[in-house]
Write a structure and sequence with these properties.
The chain has 45 residues and is mostly helical. The chain is built from two helices and no strands. It has one domain.
């Protein structure tokens, strides 16, 4: 398999793990509204 593709896949997984951790922090800050707030921000970008 192409080394560049493997590196890109690794970086995507790292970002996904970081996103999960950040979302957990958001849940801790604002509780169940975290889903609503995340969707609101996603729709505005």
């Amino acid at each position: 398999m192409d080394q560049k593709a493997l590196e890109l896949a690794r970086r995507i997984v790292e970002l996904d793990l970081k996103r999960d951790a950040m979302f957990e922090q958001l849940i801790q800050l604002i509780g169940e509204r975290a889903y609503e707030v995340l969707r609101f921000v996603q729709n505005r970008i």
